[in-house]
Amino acid sequence: MKTGRNDPCPCGSGKKYKHCCLGNGDGQGRSGFAQAVANEIAEAAAEQPFESLEELNAYTAELMNERNHCARADFCGLSPVQMSHLLYAPFTSPETVRFATDIEPGPDIEIMGIFFALVQAIGESGLKATAKGNLPLKFCKSMAQQLSEAAHDQRRLRIGGISSETDLEQLHCTRLVAELAGLIRKYRGHFVMTRKCNDMLAGQDHGGIYLELLKSYATQFNWAYRDLYPEAEIVQHSFLYTLFLLASFGDSQRPQQFYEDKFLNAFPMAIDIFEETSYSTAKDSTRRCYFLRVLDRFAAFFGLAELVSESRELYDYRYSVRKTVLLDRFVTFTPGAPP
């Protein structure tokens, strides 16, 4: 008999199936994992009772430490400890992942092309902000033309006129992230470059600029600001896990569903954040949100993934995904964290 989403989870956790093992390929979710450890402790105690609470606690700690460092199939070979590093300490866990700055991310990378155009327009004298604190309309229209000619993805381009910075979503996002990264700021009604930015540009430290933009985009900028989906923080937190997936499987083109499946297998609880509607299931909405935020507006935006359209039908966006050379040069998952 099939287990329903709202039925008790068969793993014995006491939680509803949708809050536990639903979506895990091996049928063992977070609570299922904990239950398995609890069962092992109970079996050990039955074979040879512990003489004291301290002995039980020591055995439990050792067992949990061992399990937390074991590779898990639903994490594509990562251990819970390694996954925790990717999710919650992405830039301070050199034992799991390292980033390089001796790279040359050029203007062909969308966010870098926009950033270079922005700092060129700012120059030494600054760029006058509008009354609302946005970039001037003339510059926004110029950028719209440049983006149209570059044609990173036609579906991103606004159909119709540009009346403000916010109408050009990629530019608006880049400007906000550059401010969060401390590369530009407003001063007396003008956008100006910070000393940090000037020093990095003078030293041609484009790799350092790229890393600063990526850090700020990943940890300070709210990705939900760019769409109408729920907050769903786990989607943003999973950015580095997706780079791990791309590093592992991205040598050949794979359908976007491949990466969506890997995300849902690792984080099945994400589905519960989304509402079912008359035109979409919660699972389908989760897939679309993940693809848009992580594969499209992060990995492709930063030149770490290449998206190739598999459909020519209007509003039918299906892509194949492949990693770029930049990904292998930029991020390295260290020994013990495959690949």
Radius of gyration: 23 Å
Gap between N and C termini: 38 Å
Largest sheet: 3 strands, antiparallel
Number of helices: 13
* Total strand segments: 8
- What form results from the Cα inertia axes? globular
Low-confidence stretches: 9-15, 23-29
**Beta-strand level of the residues, as a percent range?**
5-15%
**Estimated structural class:** mainly alpha
Fraction of residues in H or I helices: 40-55%
**Average pLDDT across residues?**
86
The spatial strand order of the largest sheet comes to 2-4-3
| Secondary-structure element string | HHHEHEHHEEHHHHEHHEEHE
Write a concise keyword list for the protein shown above.
mainly alpha; 339 residues; 3-stranded antiparallel beta sheet; 13 helices; single chain
Structure description:
- The protein has 13 helices and 8 strands.
- The protein has helices at residues 30-47, 53-68, 80-88, 110-122, 137-150, 169-180, 195-202, 206-219, 233-237, 239-249, 256-266, 282-300, 325-330; strands spanning 97-99, 127-128, 184-187, 190-193, 254-255, 305-309, 319-323, 331-333.
- The strands form 3 sheets. It has a 3-stranded antiparallel β-sheet with strand order 2-4-3. The chain has a 3-stranded antiparallel β-sheet with strand order 5-7-6. Strands 1-8 form a two-stranded antiparallel ribbon.
- By secondary structure, it is mainly alpha-helical.
- Strand 3 and strand 4 form a beta hairpin.
